[in-house]
Amino acid sequence: MKLPIACFALLASTAMSLAAQDMADVEITAEEVAPGIAVLFGRGGNIGVSHGEDGTILIDDQYAPLTGRIQQAVSDLGATPVRFLINTHYHGDHIGGNENFGHAGALIMAHDNVRERLITGTGRTPAAAPAGLPVITYDTGMTIHANGDTVDIIYLDGHTDGDSIVVWREDNVIHMGDLFFHEFGFPFVDVEAGGNVRHLLASLGTAIGMMDDETVVIPGHGPVATRSDLVNYRVMISESVAAVEAMLAEGMDRDAIVEANPVGPLRNTDGFISDEAFIDAIIASL
C-alpha cells in the first residue's frame, strides 16, 4: 500500500507509542555479510553489527521493546555487549532502543543534527531521555579503528538533515541508513526534517563512488543489496526529478503534475510512498 506523505507522518508519529503493543511476535534474524559483520532484521531499520576483539559496534537499534531480543541476537553472533552505537539518523524506527542501550553502557554517536533533534523532539519522534542521546557527535564524520578494520562514519544528507553512512574499508561493506530503501519503491524524503531530493541524489552519487562490484550494501530497509542495485535506485530518482522539473519548466502547477504523474512509470516496485507524495517531495526540494 502506498501512502501520501501526510499519512506517513501521522503513522510515524504514533509508531513509538504503538510499538510495545505490536512487537510481541517480532523475530530478530541475522545475516552475516562479511567475517565479523552482520545485519539484523526485525521491525524497523536494518541493524548493522561489527564484532571482534575490540568490542561490538551497533548501527541503529530499531524499537525499545525489541532491545532484549536484539541483545540476544548480538550474543548469538558470538559478540560481546554493545560498546559503540551509531545512529544513522533520528527517526524512531532506528533510534528507539537508544535509552536501553545507553543504560547498558553503549557509547552513542551520531551527527550533530541528530542530537539536536533528539533533544527537542519532533512531531514524529519524541524528545529522548538523557541516556538515549548521542554523547559523541560530529560534523562531517569520524573514524573508528576496531576489529581489524577502519570504520568511517560519513555525513551524507538527503533523507533528513542528519544522515550518515557507515563504511568498513577493508571488509568492503557500507551501511546506507535510510538514504537507501531497497525494493521499497520511491524513497521517503523527510522534507520537514531537512530532507531534500537533490541532496539525496548527491549523497547517493558520493556513496556509489566509494563502491565496487564486490561491495556489500546494507540498506536502511529491505534486503542486502549491491552497488548495481544502488545505481538503479539512483537512476529511478534522478529520472523522476528530471520529469517533474521538465513539467515545472513548461509552467504546469503541482496539481497538473500530480494528474499527469510522470513518476509512476519510473517506479521500480510498489512501496509505501505514493507517486503523489514523491512528486510533492521533489517539488519541495527544488
Automatic annotation (TrEMBL):
Similarity comment: Belongs to the metallo-beta-lactamase superfamily. Class-B beta-lactamase family.
EC number: 3.5.2.6
UniProt xrefs under PROSITE patterns: BETA_LACTAMASE_B_1
Name of this protein: beta-lactamase
GO cellular component, one term: periplasmic space
Catalytic activity: a beta-lactam + H2O = a substituted beta-amino acid
Subcellular location, principal: periplasm
Chain coiled-coil ranges: none
InterPro entries: Beta-lactamase_class-B_CS (IPR001018), Metallo-B-lactamas (IPR001279), NDM-1-like (IPR050855), RibonucZ/Hydroxyglut_hydro (IPR036866)
Keywords, ordered alphabetically: Antibiotic resistance, Hydrolase, Metal-binding, Periplasm, Signal, Zinc
Organism: Aurantiacibacter gangjinensis
Localization of this protein: Periplasm
CDD domains listed in its UniProt record: metallo-hydrolase-like_MBL-fold
UniProt keyword Cell membrane, yes or no: no
Subunit comment: Monomer.
Molecular-function annotations in GO: beta-lactamase activity; zinc ion binding
Signal peptide start-end: none
